[in-house]
Amino acid sequence: MSTTDSSTEHIKCLIIGSGPAAYTAAIYAARADLKPVIIQGMQPGGQLTITTEVENYPGYPDGVQGPQMMRDFEAQAKRFNTDVRWGYVSSVDFSSAPYKVVVDEEKIILADTVIICTGASAKWLGLESEQRLNGFGVSACATCDGYFFRQQVVAVVGGGDTAAEEASYLSKLCKKVYLIVRRGEMRASKAMQHRVSHTENIEILYNTEPKEVLGEKTVEGLRILDRISNEERTLELTGFFVAIGHQPNTDIFKGQLDLDENGYILTKPGSTLTKIPGVFAAGDVQDHIYRQAVTAAGSGCMAAIDAERYLAAAGLH
Length: 317
Prior knowledge:
This protein has 317 residues and is α/β, with parallel strands linked by helices. The protein has 7 helices and 20 strands.
């Protein structure tokens, strides 16, 4: 690590983000002597810090609370002397190497490699009750949390493929699934529409808008509005899944990297390579299909190995 002046720092490997992808990348990069620096971002630990019980990550046979799991990841990264810093990346310049990254709008880091692990944020309806009960019956991931609602009644809101897939997945676990579609039709593919409409324990409610998630400490029901009759009623249920999409945290990379139509970073198939040599992307920021902690961690490992190989080939390591 070297400094060019009092406000500029030159490092081998900068990791942006602090979820499973970022910490796993740090563990591998640190053990490869890349002396990685992590900039944690505005939500240290990522989406898992707003998750309660995690039961599907290997190595935790009794399950683990999401925030504790992220503390464990961070501790393991620090064990190998990863430099973990609080702050946020306010801008980047990938036009020439070493790459310029501005932290907190004032600190300049020049990095030989950059691993982007900024993740994706679930889109929410904007209900106060939805946020208050997030993690206590409200979820944005059926694959993550559906197991906790076995033989219970739940609702999924959304009209696209994601909502249809979530409802289909939950129908195998739950007694009943309400699929709440705010418009008069679904946007999901015909195949997915056919699947949910022919699943016996899925009831599709069109032209229906969720108004309030009911319950003090856990979800007890959902107040909905029929947009045709303008009448409200209450569904008795214990789980509410929001499936209206995710927003990748890629705004600062627009114009610098290739993004797909939804804003996810495009990487070379089978790798974490972006169009800029030495810049890599891992985790949910480039994965809109799986979006699991374990797959994010796996791609973080890939990114660190890709970064090490790039540095070696460039004679920088």
